Input
Amino acid sequence: MQQARCYLLGERAVVLELAPPVSLGSQQRIWGLAATLSARPEVTEVIPGMNNITVLLSDPQSTAPDAIEWMQFWWEKSEALELATRRIEIPVVYGGQAGPDLEVVARHSGLSPQQVVEAHAAAEYQVFFIGFQPGFPYLAGLDNRLHTPRRAEPRVAVPAGSVGIGGSQTGVYPLSTPGGWQLIGHTGVALFDPQNRPPTWLRPGDSVRFIPQKEGIC
Output
């Protein structure tokens, strides 16, 4: 069984964090644990992340002292949960003003910009969790050659719809926000709309492909 570390976070929460690597199997167990704990009376909220899960306690004064052992117990009993998979295609304009850091990723990887685009678009990604901002998908499956460190100096404003790479992750910014990921493209698809129900377009378990488009389509 994958090694897990449990610890208290503030006065009301307990966290379970798995040792690397991140894998679909471990993430499915995180999803299964989240589903189980959501129904427990000791819990007010469950927040699954990538290789971790945070649980807010309903009565921390009485449950916090034993929360670490309690969380470890439920982790050991957890089983993988396979979420329903939707296949989603996201059109992307790569490079130029849409992806100002494409050349940075190309230099770091030793590939040409076109090869970066082809590798990024060839992968089938899976949404592991939604976080950072409403609708932001953390996607597993990025080609190892494209792993690129975040910018040394984050941008003050990243345009909504920007497709970026940060370390071993790739994702799409649903809203304009400060950010330090390397921007390689842009999509016109809205990943978050507060008028929709649910307001986030993607959800954990979804399968995502990026489809290269000509300039001006997205």
